[in-house]
Amino acid sequence: MNLYLPIAEMSLNMLIPIALGAGVGILTGMFGVGGGFLMTPSLIFIGVPPAVAVATEAMKIVGSSVSGVLAHWRRGNVDVKMGAVLLLGGLVGSFFGVQIFSWLRSLGQIDVVIALLYVVVLGIVGSMMFVESIRSVLRARNVPEGTPADLRPRDRVSLAQRLPGRMVFRRSRLVVSPIMPFGVGALVGILSALMGVGGGFIMVPAMIYLIGMPTKVVIGTSLFQIIFVTANTAFLQSVTNHTVDLMLALMLLLGGVIGAQVGSWLGAKLKAEQLRIGLAALVLAVCFKMALGLVLEPDELYSYATKAGGH
Amino acid sequence: MRRLFLAMLALACAVAVGPARAAHPEIDADLSDHVIAITTGFTGSNLLLFGATQGEGDVVMVVSGPKSDLTIRRKDRHMGIWLNAAGMTFHDVPSFYAVLSSKPLKDILEPQEAAQHGIGFDALCPQPADSKVPPETVAGYQEALFRLKKDQGLYFEEPGIRFQGPRLFRANVHFPAIVPVGEFRAMVYLVKDGKVVSAKDTPLVVSKVGMGAQVHYFANEYAAAYGALAIVLSVMAGWLAGVIFRKV
Questions:
Q1: Contact across the interface for B234 and A60, Cβ inside 8 Å
Q2: Which residues fall within 8 angstroms of residue B164, CB to CB, at 6 or more apart?
């Protein structure tokens, strides 16, 4: 059944966005990431204009994060205070991100910048995750069973400790400078606006390794603040670029919530290290695919845009 | 209002072709519909052109969409990656341009006559905003413009008009799903001995209707409210999903 998307201005079989949403939703349920880094390139691949894909995905992440955070909230795994500091940074970051987005779009370079950011960010995050999870698999062989990964020494906390100012985060059992979470939040906010991602895949490692939060509260807190950052991004994109497609976002959400349930069921059956290696491989695969697109000579060198773009 | 509009179009057409010919129209034609409605289930549309001629001759139809400025960009390799480098803006480029004829255009119409009436890709020849650009460069971009538009099904030139008997003719015109909205114009010409001898103008409007149209209008006119609605809907959908699957 075909559906005309009023903002993307294209006709699409309804089942495609639902299936896409479900596919990415499975990953969300398994790995606890929003999956924006997969969804946005997939939308672009099926022909949705990149500007619409980025803005629409931001709206969709609001919904999927709300449904995700509910479970963590009930278990008390959301550090609201930490979330608020991250959020403050995130709002500032996403404000600047949308401005940069608009500016790049007027230069005609937004597609390249989106692709380039994907390659760089996914490349870094993917390889870090891959190395880390391989190491922890090897370590698990030497360490007796029952030692949770969480009790490893947090060697990278030192930077957060050296910055001026102190703030107590009770849920995270941390006393650190608020500048660190604020900075992390701002960085992820900018990326969220430019890449159409919630930034969970950057936020989660940054919270563990840079801020030093316990893994238990990381996902809930990250989802909590992602809701607000992406809501802000979606709103600013609507106002500045008119590129949020309601119909498309709702189709993606519909598939996404179903997929997430399947994913969390699957995730419970697999080991954490295996999951992380899987995710790392996936991130690197997307990175590689996008890098190829940048380096190989395109079939068509020319492209056109009418003056407004969204009309 | 609509009648007045049609009358004015008819007048404009009469002036263009010449008063003597308009008095005794040698061609009459119409489209099966004058409105293409882009609904929620829109996947493109076909319109039927039908009409009759008086006497011998060939028929050519030009359907053109609203004109606007258009920027073409070309990718170049910089430091190993392909990015949009040079660009060129053209003035008054029709968003849609279809030429249908009963025989291949070059066989029935003299080039200067085609240019005068603006029939065919060669006659269209969009001009760059920057007049100082060398013509070779312009030609490359024009070629790219036509190629891109043809690939999207927005520009085409084909001998698609069929005569049924000596005087009746008909043709199918396809509008793809990405057809731009706006006021279109369908001109039907009777051609004899390489010259246009008569013409008939038919209006055509492409517009979004129903929910899609409202969403688009809302998104552009009330952007802040639209953004707020998007967030509320998304939060509600997410919350609903969280509650439903809590039991599972």
A1: yes
A2: B170
Q: Closest partner residue to A244 among B41, B87, B230, by Cβ?
A: B230
Nearest to B74 among A11, A60, A301 (CB): A301
pLDDT score recorded for residue B9: 53
Contact B234 A231 (CB under 8 A): yes
Set of chain A residues whose Cβ sits within 8 Å of the Cβ of B43: 2, 4, 11
**Interchain proximity A310–B220, CB inside 8 Å:** yes
| Other Cβ atoms closer than 10 A to B84 | 20
ipTM of the prediction: 0.77
Q: Which of A70, A238, A311 sits opposite B230 (nearest CB)?
A: A238
Q: Identify the residue whose tokens are 């079989």.
A: A13
Q: What is the structure's pLDDT at B18? A: 46
Q: Which of A16-25, A63-72, A225-234, B72-81 has the highest mean pLDDT?
A: A16-25
Give B61's strand partners.
B100, B188
Cβ-defined contact of A67 to B245 (cutoff 8 Å): yes
Residue B171 — very low, low, confident or very high, per pLDDT cuts 50/70/90?
A: very high
Which residues make Cβ contacts (< 8 Å) with residue A230, sequence separation at least 6? A58, A59, A61, A62, A65, A192, A198
Task: Tell me how far apart the alpha carbons of residues A107 and B196 are, in angstroms, rounded to a whole number.
Answer: 44
Sorting pLDDT into bands at 50, 70 and 90, what band is B25?
low
Tell me the mean pLDDT in the region B38-42: 82
pLDDT at A233 over 90: no
Strand order in the sheet with B27-31: B27-31, B45-53, B168-175, B162-164
